[in-house]
Each structure stands twice: as C-alpha cells, then as structure tokens.
Amino acid sequence: MSAVGVFLAGLRRVRGRRSAVPALVLLATLCAQPGAHAPAFAREPAPVSVEVEPQRIGERVWFVQGDTGMVSLRNEGFNSNAGFVVTDEGVVVFDALGTPALGAVLLERIRRITKQPVRRVVVSHYHSDHFYGLQALKDAGAEVWAHRAVRDYLGTDAPAERLAERRQSLAPWVTDEARIVAPDRYIDGETVFRMGGLTFRLLPAGPAHTDEDLMMLVEEEGVLFAGDLIFAGRVPFVGDADPRAWLAALEKLSSHRPRVVVTGHGPVSRDAVADLALTRDYLLYLRAEMGKAVDELLDFEEAYERTDWSRFASLPAFGDANRRNAYNVYLRMQREVLGAD
Prior knowledge:
Blueprint: H1 3-13, H2 21-31, E1 55-56, E2 61-64, E3 82-87, E4 90-94, H3 100-113, E5 118-122, H4 128-131, H5 134-139, E6 143-147, H6 149-154, H7 158-169, E7 185-187, E8 191-195, E9 198-204, E10 214-218, E11 223-231, H8 243-254, E12 260-265, H9 272-295, H10 300-306, H11 318-337
Parallel strand pairs: 4-5, 5-6, 6-7, 11-12
Antiparallel strand pairs: 1-2, 2-3, 3-4, 8-9, 9-10, 10-11
C-alpha cells in the first residue's frame, strides 16, 4: 500500500476522535522512511458517508439536520443545519454546511427534489460549519448573500487560519482545493426580496452569536431560519459572542412568531417561545455565575469548579464547549466591571 493509502487507512481508524493528530503522526513517520515521498492532500474530497436527508417542514421548505455534537471526523463535519425553499423561479438556500463535500451533497439532494436552479444562498454567519459548502453552490451559479460585517471578517487572517486547520482536522473532506467563497452581495439592514411568489425577509441580528448574524423569514410559509441564535437540544457555542446582545436578539426573534424555526444546530422548533428557553437560560446562567465570580474576585478555575453545571451537563457538546464558553463569559464580565465593554 502507498504512503497515502496507509495514511488514509489510519485516518479512518481515528474517526470519531476529536482530532486527526494520530493519523498525521502516522503520515509523518511514513514520509520519514527511506524512499517515501510526502503526498499532497487529495484534490477531490472523499465521498460523504454520513446521511444527509432533507426533511420537509412546509409546502415548499426543506431542511437537513446535522449531528448534535461538535465537528469531528465521525460526523465528517456535518454538525450544522441548512435549509432550502423551492419557488417557481428558483431555489433559495439558507447556509451551506461545513465542507465542500457536504455542499456538493446538499446540491445533489436539492436536485432530487426539483429541477429549479439554485438562485441564491443566504449565509447566517461565516463560521466554517455553515459556509464551507458554498463552493458547489457557487459553481452551480448561485449568488451568495451575507451581512456586511462579513467583509470585516474576511479582511483578517482568521479565514485562512481556520481553513488550514480544517484541511488537517477534516481531511479528506476539506482538501487543498477548498477555498473561501466571499459574498456577492452584502446586506446592510432589514432586506426583503421576492422570488416565485414568496416573500423572503432578511433580518440582521448581530452582534449576537457573531457580528454578522443574519436570519431569514419565509413569510408565506411561516418559517424562520435563525442560524446559530438558537441551539436546540445541545449546549450553545458561545465563543467570543456578547451574551447581552445575543439575549436581545432572542427577544427580537420571538417577536416574529414564526410557525417553525430552523435552528443552526439540532431539530426544528415548532414552538419558538418554548424552545428559545434552552439557549436563553444557558446564556443567562453563564452571565449570572461568571458575574458572581468576578464580583467575588475568584479566579476562573475556582469559579468553574464551584459552579453547578448539572442542568446542562447531560446535553450534547457540553464537554467540548462549556468550559470555553464559561471562560469567555468570565473575561467579558471582567471587562464589564472595568467599564471596558
């Protein structure tokens, strides 16, 4: 077997673990052997083996639901949701999944349902698990829309750094051919467009989960695509988000009273008011507990160990996300006390 073959076999053996480091160590060992040559990453993504099955949630609306855990080799990067709306004049897609390979599968699933072309893709925010699938949709002729704050993000080193990391952690589904797809149009303020008899209302909601949060309401269908403002059935990923602004955005979301809410992760919500509770209560709890720790001048480790996490500990992604979430909120609460935030 070639060095590449042995490497990929090793990579398959470590799927389901948190990183591809063991397989990368195996590759380095192979390439150090006499006569071995360092292989390039595959130019074409490997086939997707996880199930990507559209679920119908309206007369003309479908969505696909990713795994509830964090991005991993086990789920092949499929841990977020995406949706699409079939109109008489074309298809509008919301989010594009987390790898170019998954984006290609999403496009193929859409083509099974309709012969209408994909005309537009609206991106909720530029986290890699939501937009890396844009390549296939863009190559098929779709126009990409996102919030204007994405332009600032694309002007930093962060996109290239994340792509380099994903080429390792999600090889072979993110290859050397993967690229960052920039929006064709930047949205500034609430925006309405019509296509095929349906009304699409784009609702900026940031800064919340990110600065560029963007929701999409399909008015006639009563379906709201909320991106990562709601995490259903799992611990939210807070990252560097401002929980205060996020909580305000959740209030704005509930005011639209949609029939169905497609969350960024987890199952759809058919009771938006009730299902906002998990994300809202988690953010409120983080702020309350970390704020109390800052007031008492506790260091983070002591604060984290003292906090009772039992309400959330059984939820998917708790082990991967909770400590980082708590630490980022702890730092933000410190800045608030100092008047720097």
